Amino acid sequence: MTVTLADVAAHAQVSPATVSRVLNGNYPVAAATRERVLRAVDELDYVVNGPASALAAATSDLAGILVNDIADPFFGIMASAIQAEIGGTGGRAGCERLAVVCNTGGSPEQELKYLTLLQRQRAAAVVLTGGAVTDAPHAAAVAAKLRKLTESGTRVVLCGRPPVADTGAVTLTFDNLGGARAVTDHLVGLGHRRIGCIAGPMERTTTRHRLEGHRLALAAAGIEEDARWTVHGRFDRRSGYEGALELLRRDPSLTAVVAANDSVALGACAALRDSGLRIPDDISVTGFDDLPCSIDAVPALTTMRLPLADAGARAGRLAMGREDAPPGKTASVQGELMVRGSTGAPRE
């Protein structure tokens, strides 16, 4: 059954004229009333159709950038580049928007909450960064929110996420699978056959794709993976430290460790050193992302470089409509293997 403007008015306990004024956005309406109307629009899943669609167009100067953890350099680098484009420093004067960084803390509920708030504010653009949650109900809820946003005129860009079909969002997806496979191929090429893996959170698409790439490389080399060789944790240094100790406890004969990202890799390196192992003489370690700290580690970290700043800047231009969407509204962003001192041939 189609929801009408009158239905929204009844639900919000206001007149149809007030609903029109709120959606039009160019007539004074009390803040409490406006909030009530926008909540009714969201709860009833109301979509303006036909000639009135212009009333629902996103015309505010607000743009939202969703990140999992602003303290993580992975997200900080991308958010900074996106904000520069949206805020004007990376683009043309007079085309600026107020870019608000929304830190979800990795919470699926908080992610949905921010999307709802940005929809109510009639945001001009929304950029979601980093991997998505694989939980099917949450994925469906996010897809519905993205669809609402694009239908109301908001430009939606996914940066570092898999595409979400039938939402109108533009996607810049990182080749996590191919990158992880290249990292493990590098270790196999050096002669490693017993390779541990400190993977990220099991519910994240980034973890799933990087772990799949790692396993594809092992299978291609004829290496039968031991279940003891994989542990999961968060994308942080502490998880790397604890994960490396757990891997050593499970199988002290490992000659290499692939980590979910650079922060995890640096934590792993600390744990291995504290356990009396030399890198790479006794054990090799790899990261992923090529954060600025990776080249300053001792030894410097072998890792898969993702062009985070470039991808973020492109996402910002797409969000501002200053760059045409790629064919099919999806582009794959490739990484580059950076071979440094943390990897070498396995010990005898």
Question: Can you describe this structure?
Answer:
This protein is an alpha/beta fold and 348 residues long. It folds into three domains: 5-56, 434 Repressor (Amino-terminal Domain); 63-174 and 308-331, Response regulator (Rossmann fold, 3-Layer(aba) Sandwich); 176-305, Rossmann fold, CATH 3.40.50. It is built from eleven helices and twelve strands. The protein has helices spanning 5-12, 16-24, 31-43, 73-87, 108-120, 136-151, 176-190, 205-220, 237-250, 262-274, 308-320; strands at 62-67, 98-103, 125-129, 155-159, 170-174, 195-199, 230-232, 256-259, 284-286, 303-305, 330-333, 336-338. The strands form three sheets. The protein has a six-stranded parallel sheet, sandwiched between helices. Strand 3 (125-129), helix 6 and strand 4 (155-159) form a beta-alpha-beta unit. Helix 1 (5-12) crosses helix 3 (31-43), helix 5 (108-120) runs parallel beside helix 6 and helix 7 runs parallel beside helix 8. It is elongated, with a radius of gyration of 23 Å.
Question: At the third CATH level, what is the topology name of the largest domain?
Answer: Rossmann fold
> Portion of residues in helices?
40-55%
Reported for the largest beta sheet, the result is:
6 strands, parallel
Q: Which band does the percent of strand residues land in?
A: 5-15%
Task: Please tally the β strands and state the result.
Answer: 12
For CATH, the homologous superfamily of the largest domain is named as Response regulator
Number of helices: 11
Report the order of strands and helices.
HHHEHEHEHEEHEHEHEHEEHEE
Q: Classify the secondary structure makeup into a structural class.
A: alpha/beta
Ends: how far apart? Answer: 71 Å
